[in-house]
Amino acid sequence: MTTLSTLEAYDLIKFSEQFLERLTAAQSSLAQRRGLKAEKDWMATAHELVTAARAPTQGLLERARELPELEEVRDDYVGDFQNSWVDALERLLAGITFHCGSRNPVIEALYPHQKLPLLRRCGFEVAEEFSREFDRRLKGSYVSRQFAQPDFAFILPAVEQVGAAWQKLLSAFGGGEPMAEELAIEIRKELVGAGKRLDLALLQARLLAEAALAPVNGGFEASGLGLKPKKRKPKAAAVSVVEPGSPQEPEAAPAQAGQEAPAAAEAAPEAKAARAPRKKKDKPAEAGA
């Protein structure tokens, strides 16, 4: 089986989420067709394989995100945490609307603009400014008095969820204690092990799904199950294996390159001297013509 890095294992686990969604949709579509019992059984087996392989990964990416070598995938979970924060803001708004009505003045006091969907796509600076302003409104005298009323008894857990979601988003930008090496080794081992199991399960499930959808014209292509995780372009400093004949190969032996350079420099004047007489002979011939 192919050796996986922690980054490749991370990508496999993330990709398996999308793969399972596509597999579930393909299985549902196939179930609506008459007959094809064997094919439906194959598809069910494929679904079971991926589901079982994914089970040990629950919460694993959350624990692995502090690994130093996963720094470049920070945007992945920053986006997830930002969505969770906006979800909490929307739940708070929905709770106020449900319990107190859509025209309650508290809504205007807390959400004067109500452009929450835009917060899912904004940069961190904009999100931070919104959070700071929201916290200021939350602690304002009017909102504080209203939240002390019996009608708002439901509000405290929802407000705490907003605060917890924001702190989680902040944690994605570092500033915490570095992970202990013993814990990092354990998580790396768990992450790579889960990636290897998923690598095999995804391969088997893909083949089973292709066989199951063979009777359906264009079914496998339309399902998207033939797609594979995108390969990340390695950073220049992270390249450790050089393919024979690649442009980077000479860099692997800088000492030899340095030794060969003077020889090439010495050969250059000799080559010029060898070419010079030919040029001198050519010029009189042209003049005579």
Q: Calculate the terminal CA-CA distance, rounded to whole Å.
A: 73 Å
What portion of residues belong to β-strands? under 5%
Q: Element order, helices and strands? A: HHHHHHHHHHH
The major pleated sheet works out as:
none
Q: What is the strand tally?
A: 0
Separate helix tally? 11
Give the low-confidence spans. Answer: 236-289
Structural class: mainly alpha
Description:
By secondary structure, this protein is mostly helical. It folds into 3 domains: 107 residues; 100 residues, no CATH class; 37 residues. The protein is 67% helix and 0% strand. It contains 11 helices and no strands. α1 runs parallel beside α9 and α2 runs antiparallel to α9. The chain is globular and about 65 Å long. The termini are far apart. The C terminus is likely disordered.
Which characteristics define this entry?
single chain; 289 residues; mainly alpha; 11 helices; globular; disordered C terminus
Please sum up the structure shown.
The protein is an all-alpha fold and 289 residues long. It has 11 helices and no strands.
Architecture blueprint of SSEs:
Blueprint: H1 6-31, H2 37-54, H3 60-64, H4 74-100, H5 105-110, H6 124-138, H7 141-147, H8 155-171, H9 181-212, H10 219-223, H11 254-288
